[in-house]
Design brief:
The complex is a heterodimer. By secondary structure, chain A is mostly helical. Chain A is 41% helix and 4% strand. In chain A, a hairpin with a 2-residue loop joins β1 and β2. Chain A is flat, with a radius of gyration of 24 Å. Chain B has a domain of 267 residues: Alpha-Beta Complex (Amidase signature (AS) enzymes), CATH 3.90.1300.10. Chain B has an eleven-stranded mixed sheet. The relative contact order of chain B is 0.13. The chains are: A mainly alpha, B alpha/beta. Chains A and B meet through α1, α2 and α3 of A and α9, α10, α11 and α12 of B.
Chain lengths: 111, 493
């Protein structure tokens, strides 16, 4: 399959990446090679005999011979006092690349 | 490093019998690191000596008082760097997580700490576990301790090399498409991918969630079974965790396969299976028959090419979704120059991810994108289901399957080339089968080829029959002992 420039740009955008024109040339080549590599499924026949209701089920089915059900648990409430709350906040912000007081700093998100 | 030249179980026994102290064990680990780590480069991070010795003394006290009585108490262990360790940097061998320090321990880490094991450090790997050579690591190149011109395999190459170079008797890896078993085979050690769901994935940094599974790597089947017993549990923090009745995997260490039905895989991948490995399988068949097993050849109804295509489509699709979280906001690397939010995301990801990770994200994005979803992602899901059903039918006739772990005995470092993305994908051909169906599989050493490279073979079992897989591998290992060519890993090649 040929990856057109339009397709490539669309994928780069969806992947949240930015590539130079040189890198794009290589990426186009790589993508074509990889897509060719994963094309062995084109000749799989009788695929319709497989009954999948939806994708999530099929993922679960492929792990298990028994019927899989969704895993739920009751909500739990944790009460924090001021000190433990600050401790938790510090933990959450501990790895922040950029922070200010009790928040993550990001570029302006609204115009 | 004579102390570590024994198995983990023997080591722990010696500590219990007061023939060795935990401090002595840790000191000899550090000594061995000084001797060999410069050449092998298996660790991304090694803990501070004083901190380790202090921990060793604490564990010694608990062993002396009887508080710690597990079979692996006092045993040193290395952890793949995609498993979260509280307060210890966990990078996934990626620039994007270069300075990430988890604020919690993965469930498996909690469990090995409770068992009194000592984490020595974090091991090198392919970036985000995407690779088969450990060469896609953003930080360093790990060499195969058996032959330094070769890669240790991947993605858990550092964990395999740390055991093979006798720094630690046990390590932990993760296996998405063969990432425990293939490096175990290349480095001449034992590595097991348990049934999907037996070991909690809580705290494992996700690559492809429906495939990823944590497992043990060690010098023999007994040590791996003991570590699996320590690591496995039902965990409500992992929605795909599985409850089983009995987690005592060491019960599978029975030297008897009389009457067991064993199928030997006949499928080849594009004629890539090396002759020495073919011969190893033929010889293995004879040995298993001598042990009383009913052995016959079996052909899979799907091709290895189809299994690989299915795996790469689904794994990359899941990866493209899982790796969306790396945006430079809450943790990890953030690019310096940007004018707006979109640019911050794009620059952060472009500068933070390596080439193989970007490729897989883009392939995954493609197979999930409108217009291609049906032909790629959805079709692969259906084929995965079909493969799973076909394997279930095969296991109605066979207890376990024996197959090569990898089609080759090694990949040369100089053959790893950034410009050829699919060159080494085929080396996952035999291992992905177990991941596609969530099955247990263990790679054990057979011996060495003419170049001194180890040959690994794997036993694959039906879902939740991990004990049976361990039993087959253990019996095989006992038979093969003594027949193996000894190879000095310190020999300069």
């Amino acid at each position: 399959m040929e990856i057109t420039e339009e397709m490539l740009n669309h994928m780069i955008l969806l992947s949240n990446l930015q590539l130079s024109s040189e890198e794009k040339k290589q990426a186009k080549k790589d993508m074509e090679q990889m897509i060719k590599y994963v094309s062995a499924l084109e000749d799989v026949d009788n695929i319709n005999e497989v009954n999948i209701e939806d994708d999530a089920n099929s993922i679960n089915d492929s792990m298990d011979n028994s019927k899989i059900v969704n895993v739920f648990r009751e909500d739990t409430t944790i009460c924090y006092n001021q000190t433990s709350l600050e401790g938790h906040r510090e933990q959450i912000l501990f790895n922040a690349p950029k922070r200010k007081e009790n928040g993550f700093v990001v570029p302006k998100t609204i115009d | 490093m004579n102390d570590i030249d024994i198995t983990a179980l023997e080591l722990s026994k010696k500590i219990k019998n007061k023939e060795l102290t935990v401090r002595q064990v840790v000191e000899s680990v550090l000594e061995r690191i000084n001797e060999i780590e410069d050449q092998i480069q298996s660790f991304l991070f090694i803990r501070d000596k004083e901190e380790l010795l202090l921990e060793a003394d604490n564990i010694q006290e608990k062993i002396n008082s009887g508080e710690l009585c597990g079979v692996l108490a006092g045993v040193p262990i290395a952890i793949k760097d995609n498993i979260c360790t509280k307060g210890i940097k966990t990078t996934c061998a990626s620039k994007i997580l270069e300075n990430f320090i988890p604020i919690y321990d993965a469930t498996v880490i909690k469990k090995i700490k409770e068992a009194g094991m000592i984490i020595i450090g974090k091991t090198n790997m392919d970036e985000f576990a995407m690779g088969t050579t450990t060469k896609t690591s953003a930080f360093q190149v790990t060499k195969n301790p058996r032959n330094k011109k070769y890669t240790p395999g991947g993605s858990s190459g550092g964990s395999a090399a740390a055991v093979a170079s006798k720094i630690v008797p046990l390590s932990i890896g993760s296996d998405t498409g063969g990432s425990i078993r293939q490096p175990a085979a290349f480095c001449g050690i034992t590595g097991m991918k348990p049934t999907y769901g037996l070991v909690s994935r809580n705290g494992l940094i996700a690559y492809a969630s429906s495939f990823d599974q944590i497992g043990p790597m060690g010098n023999n089947v007994s040590d791996c079974a003991a570590l699996l017993e320590v690591m496995s549990s039902y965990d409500e923090k992992d929605a795909t965790s599985r409850k089983i009745n009995d987690y005592q995997f060491t019960k599978g260490l029975i030297e008897n396969i009389a009457g067991m039905n064993i199928g030997i895989l006949q499928n080849d991948f594009d004629n890539t299976l090396e002759n020495t490995i073919k011969k190893a399988l033929i010889h293995s068949k004879e040995m298993l028959e001598q042990l009383g097993a009913n052995v016959s050849y079996v052909s899979l109804p799907f091709t290895l090419e189809q299994a690989l295509s299915t795996y790469y489509i689904l794994a990359c699709a899941e990866a493209s979704s899982n790796l969306e979280r790396y945006d430079g906001v809450k943790y990890g690397f953030r690019a310096k120059d940007y004018n707006n939010l979109q640019q911050m995301y794009q620059q952060t990801r472009t500068q933070g991810f390596g080439i193989e990770v970007k490729r897989r994200i883009m392939l995954g994005t493609f197979t999930l994108s409108s217009g291609y979803y049906e032909d790629y992602y959805k079709k692969a899901l259906k084929v995965r289901n079909k493969i799973k059903n076909q394997l279930a039918q095969i296991f109605e006739q066979y207890d376990v399957l024996l197959m090569p772990t990898a089609p080759v005995t090694g990949i040369k470092l100089e053959e790893c080339n950034d410009n050829n993305p699919t060159k080494h994908y085929f080396s996952d051909g035999y291992t992905v089968i177990a991941n596609l169906a969530g099955l247990p599989a263990i790679s054990v050493p057979y011996g060495y080829d003419n170049n001194g490279l180890p040959i690994g073979v794997q036993f694959v079992g039906n879902c939740c029959e991990d004990k049976k897989v361990i039993q087959a591998a253990y019996t095989y290992e006992q038979k093969i002992k003594g027949q193996q060519l000894k190879q000095n890993i310190n020999s300069k090649r």
